[in-house]
Amino acid sequence: MSIWGKIIGGTAGFALGGPIGAIIGAMAGHSFDKRRQGSKSNFYDSSNINNQNAFALGIIILSAKLAKADGVVTKDEINAFKEKFRIPQNEMKLVGKIFNEAKKSAYGFESCAKQIKVMFSNNRIVLEELLNNLFYIAEADGKISKSELDFLKTVSLIFEFDQKTFERILESRQKIENMDPYKVLGVNREDSDDDIRKAWINLTKSHHPDQLVAKGLPPEFIDQANKEMSSINAAYDKIQKMRT
């Protein structure tokens, strides 16, 4: 069963509080007690949901909120979501229900992002991959609008990433010939060769697909991780050539 089927099948559960619990409960037709939503303990309770389910739910909900960021939900954005994340045809309708419920929910994306941050409070690399995948959705219609970029910056701040980390993720999305390799590696132009090599090694270790799956990244999202790895390696090669 795919990660989508596991969520839809109920293994994510409905005991999860906060805005995400409300969105899932509303999608499934369950009543949702507002007193439960306001409970801090319930907001933080993610004991019934594993990392892969939490990641997939985070992608669905924040992608829906992102698609609304510029005021227009385009077919390209919806198709990119469906195709990129390998949603089986038999699960497409129900995943779409979660997406649509999140899109129309009164809960803002900030509150959803804060809850996701809590779920992955000790797993920053997976939060980075979630943000990386949101960039993919924003790019689906050919460009990232100002409102979409503001959305992504706000999510990055909620996830407690500094400016250099945000710029590294953003720059890694560029074509190899256009990207600033120093930004992709998160280093400065005046850094030594040894320091740049250390940064490259650390990034390749932390972003290796096997490492990401072990930390909770669903296999359906590995393609974007592989592209990020390619950008990291290309940036290091580019710097080496520039310095010879």
Outline:
The protein has 15 helices and no strands.
Keywords:
244 residues; 15 helices; globular
Description:
The chain has 244 residues and is an all-alpha fold. The chain contains 15 helices and no strands.
Distance between the termini: 50 Å
Nearest-integer average pLDDT = 81
How many helices? The count is 15
Provide the structure class: mainly alpha
- Biggest sheet layout: none
Report the helical percentage.
Answer: 55-70%
Number of strands: 0
General shape: globular
Strand content: under 5%
What are the low-pLDDT stretches, counting only 5+ consecutive residues below 50? 31-48
Radius of gyration (Å): 18 Å
Topology pattern, helix = H, strand = E: HHHHHHHHHHHHHHH
Describe the secondary-structure layout.
Blueprint: H1 3-8, H2 18-27, H3 34-37, H4 40-44, H5 51-67, H6 75-84, H7 89-104, H8 109-119, H9 124-138, H10 146-158, H11 163-171, H12 181-185, H13 193-206, H14 209-214, H15 222-243
Helix pairs in contact: 2-7, 5-7, 5-8, 5-9, 9-10, 13-15
